[in-house]
Design goal:
The protein is α/β, with parallel strands linked by helices. It is built from 13 helices and 16 strands. It has an eight-stranded mixed beta sheet, with helices on both faces. A six-stranded antiparallel beta sheet has the order 12-13-11-14-16-15, covered by helices on one side. Strands 5-6 form a two-stranded antiparallel ribbon. Strand 5 and strand 6 form a beta hairpin. It is globular, with a radius of gyration of 23 Å. Magnesium ion binds next to loops. Adenosine-5'-diphosphate (ADP) binds next to loops.
Length: 415
């Protein structure tokens, strides 16, 4: 069996949904698990609903209505007027509207999962009904009953031991299944989400549990390119990369693959294909277990909205072990991931993602012992397989705040 994953961009409008279903049609007699994300920017739109909901702001209704209008506009283009799908979708919106009409009583992150998870329920239902309308035999699966997670809402962890037997039994017989990415459920049946962009990870987790032959992630780009084409339109496709390279790229922030996706596949040696949904004959990028692909062009990864924090001990002591351990203790307590760090005799600098609350609280916590400077609105550019020309291209006319160059990777923080 194989796993396909379609992201929001490949399900953003009637035309793309039709293209995607044309692809699926070719596999209609196979054993195929189809994992879908919420359509277009639905997750962002539902985050808005959640935000107003917890603020107890009546704009929550308007925000939800926008999600509804978007989906209805889509339905009108691909279904006949009286189709069963309308009743299902209407009910989902009715229930959600009802849910948000009560004031929230539980935790913010818990409420996030109850609201935002609906995006994938909607998209999977729409896909299910549309595939059926094309005479494709397919089952709709509520993955929340099989993909068991802990209850760390908004960033839940899949409990593979608990999920395994359930997932195996759900998908055991040959056929087509459509299910949701990004969402899971606790043992008690409470909805959870796996963190933004988590659908890639769902596809990998299911493939791992089911010993799939391969996973294909269908994107709005021809494959993994050597840069985000929105930033560098001249970016070129990488035909083949190793698991290790893919892990590095996603770790450094290449948005094209979610960082947690590769490990489960690597563990079972399951190949990952990244392909273009509007050009399915294009071979895309193959991610496999190999040491052979040594010749790669420079690969550029941009991370915006970075902050560099530099701390200097107030007592003029050196940045030695004792000071470092204090700094790291505070970073760990704030769950702050360090993207880059640099040490000198009397100062220590870190580059982190900007999060106003966390930054304030960190600066506060450190200020008793350190003088602190910080610099916002920076960009961290990572260049894998850099060349001098590649570095030159990036830093030209820019102000370098930090830079670190290792054997394969150059990382530069720019203003
Ligand atoms: P999906 O909704 O399918 O998960 P995403 O928007 O998360 O899609 O990821 C696809 C986008 O990732 C592309 O549209 C592209 O702009 C961006 N991207 C960033 N880095 C790369 C890269 N190295 N190669 C290809 N696409 C990239
Ligand atoms: N729909 C979710 C998001 O936008 C998950 C995903 O697309 O992978 O983050
Ligand atoms: Mg994505």
């Amino acid at each position: 069996m194989q796993v396909f994953k379609f992201g929001g961009a490949s399900l953003k409008d009637a035309k793309s949904i039709m293209q995607v279903c044309e692809i699926i049609k070719n596999y209609k007699d196979d054993h195929l698990v189809i994992v879908v994300s919420a359509m277009g920017k639905t997750t962002n739109a539902l985050e808005e609903v959640h935000k107003y909901y917890i603020e107890n702001n009546d704009k929550k209704y308007e925000a939800l209505n926008n999600v509804k209008l978007y989906h209805y506009n889509l339905l009108k283009q691909i279904f006949k007027e009286e189709d069963e799908v309308y009743f299902e979708i209407e009910k989902i919106f009715f229930d959600l509207n009802n849910y948000i009409s009560y004031n929230y009583t539980n935790f913010i992150e818990y409420e996030y999962d109850q609201i935002v998870s609906i995006g994938e329920i909607l998209s999977s239902k729409i896909m299910y009904y549309y595939l059926r309308s094309l005479d494709i035999n397919v089952k709709w699966i509520d993955i929340r009953s099989g993909l068991i997670t802990d209850d760390y809402h908004r960033e839940a962890t899949i409990l593979f031991e608990n999920a395994s037997s359930k997932i195996k039994s759900i998908f055991s017989s040959k056929g087509l299944y459509v299910c949701q990415g990004f969402i899971g459920g606790t043992e008690d049946g409470i909805s959870t989400t796996l963190g933004r962009e988590g659908s890639d990870y769902t596809a990998a987790a299911l493939a791992y549990i089911l010993d799939a032959k391969s996973v294909t992630i269908w994107k709005d780009v021809p494959g993994v390119l050597n840069a985000d084409p929105r930033i560098m339109p001249e970016a070129i496709k990488l035909d083949s990369i190793s698991y290790k390279e893919a892990i590095e790229l996603s770790y450094y922030g290449a948005q094209v693959i979610h960082p947690k996706t590769i490990k489960p596949l690597q563990n079972k040696n399951i190949p990952l294909y990244v392909k273009y949904y509007s050009d399915p004959n294009n071979s895309g990028t193959k991610v496999i277990n190999t040491d052979e692909i040594t010749e790669l062009p420079p690969i550029y990864i941009y991370k915006y909205n970075q902050v560099v924090v530099s701390v200097m001990p107030k007592d003029f002591s050196f940045i030695a072990e004792e000071n470092l351990s204090i700094i790291f203790k505070h970073l760990a307590e704030h769950k702050i991931k360090v993207n880059l760090m640099q040490q000198s005799a009397v100062s220590f600098s870190i580059c982190i993602d900007y999060n106003e609350q966390k930054l304030k609280s960190l600066l506060n916590a450190l200020s008793y012992k350190f003088n602190i400077l910080h610099n916002k609105n920076l960009t961290l550019v990572t260049i894998r397989h850099y060349t001098n020309e590649a570095i030159e291209k990036i830093i030209r006319n820019k102000n370098i705040i930090l830079m670190e160059v290792s054997r394969k990777t150059a990382r530069i923080v720019l203003k």
